[in-house]
Structure formats: structure tokens, C-alpha cells
Amino acid sequence: MSFEVSTAFVQQYKTNVEMLLQQRGSKLRRAVMSDSYTGKAGKAVEQIGPVTAQKRTTRHADTPLISTPHDARWVFPTDYEWADLVDDQDKLKMLIDPTSSYAMNGAMALGRAIDDEIVQAAFGDAKTGEDGTQVTPFDTAGQQVPADIGSGDSGMTVEKLRAAKQILMANEVDVDNDPLFVAMTARQHDDLLSETQAVSLDYNTKPVLVEGRITGFFGFSFIHTERLGIDGSGHRRLIAWAKSGLHLGVWNDIATRIGERADKSHATQVYVKGTFGATRVEEGKVVEVLCAEA
Fold first, then answer.
1. What is d(CA 84, CA 268) in angstroms, rounded to the nearest whole number?
2. What value does the CA radius of gyration of the chain take, rounded to a whole number of Å?
3. CA atoms within 13 A on the CB side of 57
4. Does 117 or 66 have the greater pLDDT score?
5. pLDDT band (50, 70, 90) for residue 51
6. Of 73, 89, 187, whose CA–CA distance to 132 is shortest?
């Protein structure tokens, strides 16, 4: 059972169960493509490579046969679950039944797990090929904005946003119709607050600073998350991507069950589960932006 439940007893004079500071569910799910799957794996997308048209130089010439390159990108599921117990005696001592709040807390944990899957997929090995057995690593050489762009290691700058946008556009990403996002921590957001171009109306046709927060700039929508990784040199690994460049596969969406456990003195069990995975769909649609935090 949960040995922390006593902190919610009536002696604490609380009338509501408050969630401790935490990321409340998934923040990145809305910014990626998603689909439902069954089985051991899912084919996220069939990839058809570019071809070049051939000039017709003579009349009645043979029809040219130009082979179309094919590939596929796969997504594999991971099972997640969470549970806790609440005794009937605990319910009697509490001002409200805690099970609904426990269920919400568990669902938030599963939402954060979705974000962890997406973050890992952005720069991790992608599974490709006819049956998903081939490995495609992240293209560090072509899809990375280094931390020392400009002059020495730096935090988040407008120059880095420009560099990320240039990479995406050079890769023929349809920036007019494919929404662009950048995931960053509070530290990088604070870096941008010092960038005149990012906050001044002299450089923007409409305000980008709302109540002390920059929601977007340079065609990117910003998503705040503290779940981004750090590389071996201590640089924060920000993700800049087109929505179609990352994919979330859902086998079982987040589900909650609350029931009695006879084997636990008939305590109430709050159980939350979900099965999902993520993948990078196309190399040219995801950019790594390195930022110093020292």
C-alpha cells in the first residue's frame, strides 16, 4: 500500500488533494503525427524516394523505366504501467476519496512516458527496411546545430533558430504547410528573453512575448519541457522538427482501472497502463540544436 497516504489525513486540514510540481501529462503528443496499431510492430510510413524525370529527345523513343526507391519506417511498442493502493481505513480518515486524484497522478506519469519515447526517438536509432530490422542512426553531421555556432559555446540564440530553419528548408521540408516546433527547457527560453530580435516588435509583425513567455518565433512554435537530454559535453539537446518528422504509435492508449484487491485486505487499487512507441520518420525533418548551460 502507499505509506505516504497518511500525509492526507484530516489533521492536515486539507480539503483538496494537490498535485506536487510535475509535468502534467504529455506536452509533445500534439506536435507529432500519431496512429493506432496492433501486433508486435507498426509500419509508421512507406517512404518513396525522389526520382528524376528524363528528357525526351527523339520521337517514338522507348519508354524510360526509372526505378522508384522504396523504404519504410517502423515503430515498436513499449508497455508502461503504474499502480498504488488505498486502504478503506485510509478513506475514512481522509476528507475526500483519494482514488480519483491517484488515477490522475498515474495518468500524468504515463503522459510523461509518452514524451520520453518521443524525445528518445528524435535522436535515437530508427528502424527501417522491409521488416524493421535495419538501423538508421541520427544524421549528426547534417542535422545538427552546434553549440559553438557563431563565437564559442552559447545558449539558445536567434542565430541557432535560423540555422535550424535553414537545415529544414534545405531538406525541402514544406514549412508553409508542415508545422514546425522547438522543444526547449526553461533555461533556453530564458536565453531567448535576452535576444532583442525575439522579443522586440521592431523585428516582429505581432507580439511574440505574452506575459513574460515567448510562445514562438521564426516560424517555430515553442514547447517547454524539462525532459530533454544532455550530451557527453554537457550541452542540452534541443529538438527542432516538422510535425510530420516524428511519429507516435499507440497500441493501447492511457487507461485507468480502479478496483478492489482481495489479496491486499480488500484495499482499493488504482492502476494505470498504456502501450506506445515513437520513431523519427525522416532524417531531414528533425534537427538537433545544442545549447550550453554553463
1. 8
2. 24
3. 3
4. 117
5. low
6. 73
Spatial contact of 165 and 175, defined as CB atoms under 8 Å apart: yes
* Cell numbers describing residue 276: 506506445
Residues forming a β-bridge with 81: 273
Distance between CA atoms of 256 and 111, rounded to whole angstroms?
A: 13
Residue type, 222: F
138 with 283: CB under 8 angstroms?
yes
Cell of 231: 550530451
User: What amino acid is encoded at 33 in this protein?
Assistant: M
Residue 98: all three cell numbers together: 483519494
C-alpha distance across the termini of the chain, in Å: 42
What's residue 4's pLDDT?
66
Average pLDDT value for residue range 45-66: 72
In the chain, % of residues over pLDDT 70: 82
pLDDT at 14: 45
d(CA 166, CA 137): 21
Per the listing, cell 531531414 goes with 284
Separation of alpha carbons 167 and 145, rounded Å: 9
Q: How far apart are CA 229 and CA 289, in angstroms?
A: 11
* Contact partners, residue 253, CB within 8 Å, separation at least 6: 274, 276
CA–CA distance, 30 with 285 (Å, rounded to integer): 17
* E strands, the chain, in order: 33-36, 42-48, 70-75, 78-86, 126-128, 134-136, 144-145, 180-184, 209-210, 213-214, 216-217, 220-224, 236-242, 246-261, 267-280, 286-291
CB 129 within 8 A of CB 71: yes
pLDDT value at position 289? 98
C-alpha cell at 42: 507498426
Per-residue model confidence as pLDDT tens digits over 143-170: 999 999 877 889 999 999 999 999 999 9
